[in-house]
Write a structure and sequence with these properties.
This protein has a single domain, classed as Rossmann fold. It is globular. It has 220 residues and is of the alpha/beta class.
């Protein structure tokens, strides 16, 4: 089973419940192949400072693959920071956007977000039209038109597409080409350059265990 770090906004009830719902549908669609790690399950409303950042980054370093929610007119800054860290560590990643709005500076044929978040290796992008999926599922319900029924159809579709993308990025060759020594250097440097004590959580010994575990899954 591979662990997915699921990054996205988690500041209101729609974010929190939406993240949990999608995580459950992904795990179901993955049939035991994936376990979703939600940062919101370890974060709290109080004492929000660098210790929260460090805990989230520690989880990201440890995960096998990452999923990033790129909704919003402006992408969530924390999610973008985590995505760049994932690419620094060559973590297979999937970007999802369900927002119907076009944002960014790439024109109608590019990604609907800032160009600085596009073009990275070992990354797939999924663009969903949440409004269209909502209405499609609403029209298909002749007898059971409850919110729960509509949501089940929408999230099941999202989850199946996400699982297919996750399977593809996991199968992509990594930038380290199996070189565990190079991976260790990059991981240790990424922990150290972050400052604020992240390297105290991600010690060289822990990083060595993370890399060896990923190597055993053919992810390095």
């Amino acid at each position: 089973m591979l662990n997915i770090y699921f990054a996205g906004e988690l500041f209101d009830h729609k974010h929190l419940s939406g993240n949990m719902l999608l995580a459950e549908y992904i795990e179901h669609a993955g049939a035991g192949r994936y376990n979703v790690i939600l940062p919101q399950t370890v974060e709290h409303a109080e004492n929000r400072f660098v210790d929260i950042r460090n805990k989230d980054l520690e989880m990201l370093f440890s995960c096998d693959v990452a999923l990033f929610n790129f909704d919003g007119c402006d992408l969530d800054s924390g999610t973008v920071a985590e995505f760049i860290y994932a690419k620094m560590l060559d973590i297979p990643s999937v970007l999802i956007r369900t927002d119907v709005r076009i944002a960014g500076d790439q024109g109608e044929h590019g990604d609907p977000w800032n160009l600085m978040c596009s073009g990275y290796p070992r990354t797939e992008r999924l663009h969903f039209n949440a409004m269209a999926e909502f209405h499609k599922n609403r029209r298909s319900k002749t007898s059971d038109c409850t919110a729960r029924s509509i949501i089940a159809g929408v999230y099941s579709f999202f989850a199946e597409e996400i699982i297919a993308s996750l399977d593809r990025v996991v199968a992509m060759p990594g930038q380290f080409n199996g070189d565990l020594s190079m991976a260790a250097q990059i991981y240790n440097w990424a922990a150290k350059c972050s400052g604020s004590g992240l390297d105290k959580l991600l010690t060289p010994e822990k990083i060595d265990r993370i890399i060896r575990a990923k190597s055993a899954r053919n992810l390095i």
